[in-house]
Amino acid sequence: MKGRWWRRVAMVTLSAGLLAGSFSMNTGLRQADAAAGDHNYAEALQKAIYFYEAQRSGPLPANNRVEWRGDSGLQDGADVGVDLTGGWYDAGDHVKFGFPMAASATMLAWSVVEYADGYEQAGQLEEIKDNIRWATDYFMKAHTKPNELWGQVGGGNIDHAWWGPAEVMQMNRPSFKIDASCPGSDLAAETAAALAAASIVFADDDPTYSAKMLQHAKELYNFADTYRGKYTDCITDAAAFYNSWTGYEDELAWGGAWLYLATNDNAYLSKAMAAADRWSTSGGSANWPYTWTQGWDSKHYGAQILLARITSSLNMPEATKFIQSTERNLDYWTVGTNGGRVTYTPGGLAWLDQWGSLRYTANAAFIAFVYSDWVSDPVKKSRYQNFATSQMNYILGDNPRQSSYVVGYGKNPPQHPHHRTAHSSWMNNEDIPANHRHILYGAMVGGPNASDQYTDDISDYVSNEVATDYNAGFTGALAKMNLLYGQNHQPLANFPAPEVKGDEYFVEAAVRSSGSNYTEIRALLNNRSGWPARMGDKLSFKYFLDLSEVYAAGRTVSDVQVTVSSTEGATVSQPVVVDAAKRIYAVTADFSNTKIYPGGEGNYRKEVQFRITGPQGAWNPANDPSYQNLTTGTPVKSAHIPVYDAGVKVYGQEPGVTPVTVPVAPTGVQASPGNNQVTLSWTASAGAVSYTVKRAEVSGGPYTTVATGVNGLTYTNTGLTNGKAYYYVVTAVNAAGESPASVQVLGTPQAGSTVPGALTLSGTAGNNQTVLSWTAASGAASYKVQRAAANGTFADVATGLTVLTYTDTTALNGTSYNYRVVAVNASGQSLSNVVVLTPSGPPVSTGTLEVQYRSGGSGNSSNAVTPQFNVKNTGTQAIDLSTVKIRYYFTKDGTEDLTFWCDYAVVGTANVQGKFVNVNPAKGTADTYLEISFTSGAGSLAAGAETGVIQGRFSKNNWSNFDQSNDYSYDGSKTAFAAWNKVTAYQGSTQVWGLEP
């Protein structure tokens, strides 16, 4: 829909007398910047749309992008004999509230009508239309008779009492409707508005579907107009959640305006204007309300903009009141109206109300954008556009917290939105797991308080809930932001990235008791599925036995018996042969027809206790494959007890089978264009047998496979068109499957003579350096040297070289590097082979001290660094500890001052001191070191003695996070004390332990 929808409504120039005056208020509050922020608006829009796919109910389509969502709510409407599957779940719950769902769909359709070019520029037009269609399909399904509309599925209180993923809901989901005997004009007219607005969106692409929606919209509006009433007087369950506070006159005006725009039938315009005449006048004498904004309940603010534009285009005198009322509202949000203005936070957020503060801001921004596009007064046009821009940038991260309020986007985004399925608890508990298992990309959370304060807390549904109506105006305003500031912005390729899945099914087991001829097992079969959550009513597990000792004693499997002492639904088999030659047998515990699902204690796991009894004197469980690592006491997860779903293994290791896992995506992918060709290279993926190369002619795909079974780490794609852009991804393949795609790279072949010829690289490692040499490549104009850390991306370390050797003096001892050389000329590049070199220095005498280190477990990213040490005297004489110093090297990650604490030390915390010293110039991954010393009170360390644990901790004074992943002395894998030469020790001024960076 490339043409602006107002082609039926001609633009007119409004005289100054039509435009209501406003005055400026000097509040002393700062306003968020009203310019393009440092944001990728195309990415933000892409993710905001994706959120609606995460909210889908019903059977999901084949193109579902949300890997952690599956079919759900498949019995919706069965209680009344109507198919009510589909639609959106409202927020972080699973109720389908028709009123806010319709309001959200209308806003999204309005945004496409206004800003289709913004969606198209971001490559998201088809995505937004697909999501609007998901809602409108449901509305037409729920409109079962001309005067009957099903307006809610699910009971609010019973739904909210359970915390789990949508796919395994077990509660009753009642259906509620409005009809002629108990009407709801607000609900019916809002649904009519959604369908009418969407009919405009689809009029060009799918006229048949558009006409179908329009017919439903006409019937629904007639129903709303003929049978008057508030929907919450009939669907009383909704009153506690989405009560119709403003009544239905605003929806009658709103729906009538949209039907007029969809049909050009003046009867709808007359009905809309008549409804507007019945609006409340609480905004002052003859004025309509102006101190709120468009939302799921109040449609006055959107309706009056539509009516201002329609009546102005028709030169109707009523235009004045709609224009003046619109500007009173927008001025209230900007410069103030009648001495009052919306609250502004110190950080510049226009803040209306605590519960979901950002939804109001985003909705006000959207209608401000819409009106600024139409109003002719340049002052007002700039005022309203600047207001909307500043508010959107605040939401995206230009705020005092320097944090995004959109999940999965920008800096420091929310991690704990109040959303059941994204959290994916198997325990019916907001606190388990501690972190969400899924990223709810694009969801705008409720937002901060009036002081810009916000806590990312899953239980805070006031500030941290998400909802379809929250994202509606926000999404539309992002489409406009993309038009204004996102001309060169691109959505993310290969979005969304595959999530790292945890174990979804497994058995926790323990030895309950044992004797000379029996072993009794306690086993709990877990279903913690989340990709997506799934009902497990065909689950089983196998416990494998090795009966070699039984047969060696002249007995057989018939002498082994299995008995069950306790079960929560399992049928347990006798031993069945698996490998007769090796005497391997399996006992199967079959939980078929028992519901095991991630729905809380008693549901997510089921227990069985069984005893395996063998012949006396010929029984030894130690050789049983499934007995490995089992102990008495608390059951633990066992990979040796595999789990099956409908007979297909979904977890664990069967005896004699080495598990193969899918390789990770290749990294370090680079494209080197040549004449009618592109050469790709990448780093090896662990476990990969071969690689597949895929190509697209549009960024983000779809991709076509151009090569399979590639055994090396390079591939040249020939026969291409010079000057044409080609987009590539690479995947790694083994027997377990294919990895996710690599990061996309771009290659554009260029005409020329020929790319440089082949070259071969060799090298040697030295002390904090590597020396490289290579053979000459025919036709090369110059060379560049590229380096990558293990599994990292190659980066240039030297360019423009005309010699055949290079010494890398920035290499660090103890670090392995991948090197390659690129031969360059005007036609393109050629890549050498890759060599791996690890610099190392001459050994340092350990003298008389050894420093042992372990990580305190603070993790790669934390606001505290927690190294722990143990110093050992390896000499033959006692050492005065006051002469000893230990140095721990790290990157400071900022300029803030640091503070050291000794939390515990065997030698006494008061006897341990710490100070920080800058490393100038910085050496690789160290720009600072912590120097620990000891007072005389620490005493001396006898020969062969150890200090015992010294628990250190330091933080920045502003408590911001460190990134320890690049710290010289840090090793998060060391959880037990071990000698560590990346911490140095000194006696007096003599280094006696370790390697300095």
What does this structure look like?
With 997 residues, this protein is an alpha+beta fold. The chain has 5 domains: 39-57 and 66-180 and 283-486, Glycosyltransferase (Alpha/alpha barrel), CATH 1.50.10; 505-651, Immunoglobulin-like (Sandwich); 667-747, Immunoglobulins (Immunoglobulin-like), CATH 2.60.40; 761-837, Sandwich (Immunoglobulin-like), CATH 2.60.40; 849-993, Sandwich (Immunoglobulin-like), CATH 2.60.40.710. The protein has 16 helices and 46 strands. Strands 8, 10, 11, 12, 15 and 16 form a 6-stranded antiparallel sheet that branches. It has a 5-stranded antiparallel sheet with strand order 9-13-7-6-14, with no helix packed on it. Strands 19, 20, 22, 23 and 24 form a 5-stranded antiparallel sheet that branches. Helix 3 (125-142) runs antiparallel to helix 5, helix 12 (357-374) packs antiparallel against helix 13 and helix 12 crosses helix 15 (468-485).
Secondary structure layout:
Elements: H1 41-54, E1 96-97, H2 98-121, H3 125-142, E2 148-153, H4 156-160, E3 175-179, H5 185-201, H6 207-226, H7 239-242, H8 249-263, H9 266-277, H10 300-313, H11 319-333, E4 343-344, E5 350-351, H12 357-374, H13 378-396, H14 420-423, H15 468-485, E6 505-515, E7 518-527, E8 539-546, H16 548-552, E9 561-567, E10 571-572, E11 576-579, E12 584-590, E13 605-613, E14 636-638, E15 643-645, E16 648-651, E17 670-674, E18 677-681, E19 690-696, E20 704-710, E21 714-718, E22 726-734, E23 737-738, E24 745-747, E25 761-765, E26 770-774, E27 782-789, E28 795-801, E29 805-808, E30 817-825, E31 828-831, E32 835-837, E33 849-855, E34 861-862, E35 867-873, E36 879-880, E37 884-890, E38 898-905, E39 912-923, E40 926-934, E41 940-941, E42 950-956, E43 962-963, E44 978-979, E45 983-987, E46 990-993
Antiparallel strand pairs: 1-2, 2-3, 4-5, 6-7, 6-14, 7-13, 8-12, 8-15, 9-13, 10-12, 11-12, 15-16, 17-18, 18-21, 19-20, 19-22, 22-23, 22-24, 25-26, 26-29, 27-28, 27-30, 30-31, 30-32, 33-35, 33-44, 34-43, 35-42, 36-41, 37-40, 37-45, 38-42, 39-40, 45-46
